[in-house]
Design a protein that fits this description.
This protein is α+β, with helices and mostly antiparallel strands and 285 residues long. Helices cover 25% and strands 21% of the residues. The two termini are 37 Å apart. The structure holds a DNA duplex (16 and 16 nucleotides).
Amino acid sequence: MPELPEVEVICRGLVPNLVGRTITAAIFSHQKMRLPLPAQQLSAWITGRKIKAVRRVAKFIVLDMDSSACLVVHLGMTGRLNFFPAGTAPAKHDHARWLLDNGLELRFHDTRRFGSIQVLAPGENPAEVFGELGPDPFRPEFNADYLAGQARGRALPVKNLLMDNRVVTGIGNIYASEILHVSGVNPATPAGHLSLQQWQKIVTNSRLILKAAIACGGTTISDYVNSRGEKGYFQTRLQVYGREGEACPICQKPIKKVRLGGRASYYCPGCQPEPDERKIVKKRR
DNA sequence: ACTGGATCCTGACTGC
DNA sequence: TGCAGTCAGGATCCAG
């Protein structure tokens, strides 16, 4: 389940085999994806074009083409992008294959088909493809004042706020739990209850944890692999996620699991005390 | 306006 | 052994 660090690691791994290469042909499965495949735009702007750069936007992988269009891939939960020698037999759930002029083909494999393939045409508004995106956690705009402003007057659990792409991009279920644990904030705390100090901790720890996860090659819970098919190893450094009943590495209290917004959320009742009942300061409009 | 729940999907796992 | 049910979660839609 790729979040920001996994997507970043995949992007970096794609660069050596993609930048400067030309996509000579493309083959797609007829399986229905979350979003319909933009067949016309793919043939008009992507196939036959050279790849100028590979970059990450939120959890999207973006290939900048010399046509000034972008190929935009989202991995959803189980998506993978891997290279194979051209002509290798396709596997089940290979939904797209782009043949390159270096004898390789780039494949998009997605078991659950929650991922997407889109084209950002030249001149098109990026919001059409990316949607409404908040700042990247590594940008200076992502700071305590900004988060406090976003949270003011809101009763939404802080964990759900952190997972909202319109507030901040790239933080998913695993890292939200980890960031809040290190910050000593209970995930169920209404976002509007947090102090500026707590937001500052969350900002600092978000960057620390995401950076550390990138350095570890990401987190592999079940099926994530990078573009070379290698697993990450940050899962060995997770302190609470997936560790219900185990001792908290900081205070030794057993880690608890709750469901917030339909998502499994892990926390330590010792390090992250239950939220109090203070009234929320109402948002000014 | 805001929030929580349902939905999409397949495979791994559990319990009977 | 085989079947049914549950769970996993990113993004989006919808109802209250």
